[in-house]
Specification:
mainly alpha; 9 helices; disordered C terminus
């Protein structure tokens, strides 16, 4: 319940938080911590959706100041760790819903789209896609029957969301160094 309340609060005040960089950093850190803590929850109360609340908070915070997070290597590493956590949570019995991962992905995409260095963009972008691609590989591996094939459809939809969000997120530097 605490993770959900934190997420709702930060979602509501994301615009205010984005006006002060130290507050923004603290808010994003709290939202990411709450998101990761939700993996360990054992409460199956369907009225409480900690992944929804915290991923919405992260999306709002990241989308309001993507350049702030893009310029901070520690923030990029924390977002990467949070994204990997979303894949652990997707396999959890209280699993993160597709819409929750979609919200988190859209915020992270806005940050990655703000990277001005082509090498940094490429490195972070491919690292971001890695869990989805690995999951698809596991799903479509004929020897592995442990994963639900409908999960493959969700991963493909998530990749489409990523592409769409990069298109909406602003200019992305291509290999030639020009805005694309």
């Amino acid at each position: 319940m605490t993770c959900s309340a934190v997420g709702r609060f930060l979602t509501k005040f994301a615009q205010w938080c984005s006006k002060n960089p130290p507050v923004l950093d603290a808010a994003a850190n709290v939202a990411l911590t709450a998101f990761k803590a939700a993996v360990n929850l054992s409460d199956s109360n369907e009225a409480i959706r900690p992944f929804f609340e915290t991923s919405s908070a992260l999306r709002n915070l990241l989308s309001r100041a993507p350049q702030h997070f893009a310029s901070n290597q520690a923030a990029l590493a924390a977002l990467s760790d949070g994204w990997v956590t979303s894949y652990m949570a997707a396999g959890h019995e209280l699993g993160i819903e597709f819409e929750d991962r979609q919200a988190l992905a859209s915020g992270i995409c806005r940050v990655l789209a703000s990277l001005n260095d082509p090498a940094a963009f490429q490195s972070n972008f491919f690292g971001f896609l890695q869990p989805a691609i690995m999951m698809l590989g596991e799903i479509f591996d004929k020897a592995s029957a442990k994963l639900d094939p409908s999960r493959g459809a969700d991963e493909i939809k998530l990749l489409a969301v990523v592409v769409r969000n990069f298109k909406l997120g602003g200019p992305i530097i291509n290999q030639g160094g020009e805005a694309g």
